[in-house]
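subagent[fold] <- orchestrator: predict structure for attached chain, return tokens only, no commentary.
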Amino acid sequence: MKNMEYNAGEIVELAIRRQEFSISELSRRLHVNRRTLYNWFTKKDLHPELILQIGKVINYNFYPDFEIGFFGLCHEEELKSNTRNTRKYSEDLVFYWMGKYINLLEEYKGLLRKRNSQKADSYTVAGE
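subagent[fold] -> orchestrator:
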């Protein structure tokens, strides 16, 4: 499979699905939400360290799926030695925080609906 045919996110998603690995389980192990994973799947470029970490979790070697220059390294040992802690890396990602923000907005919207529903009920009781 060549990097020119697919974007990095599609290659990663395809490998995850071929391994029949649960998206929910992967999100738990990478300490990100599922929405973040789906956002990664749409990205043309993903950081090589992230790809390697996903490969480690799903027990898949992405090295043959990308052109050699993609990782900028030639030896698998070098790839492993450069892998950082996923939790630290994911906190740096825009999509991680965007997912957190969207979840917070959804919770806030639910609270507003609940409050408005309670107000409507109190008007109905008072108006009867």
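orchestrator: received. Logging for downstream: Residues 81-86 have pLDDT under 50 and may be disordered. The chain has eight helices and no strands.
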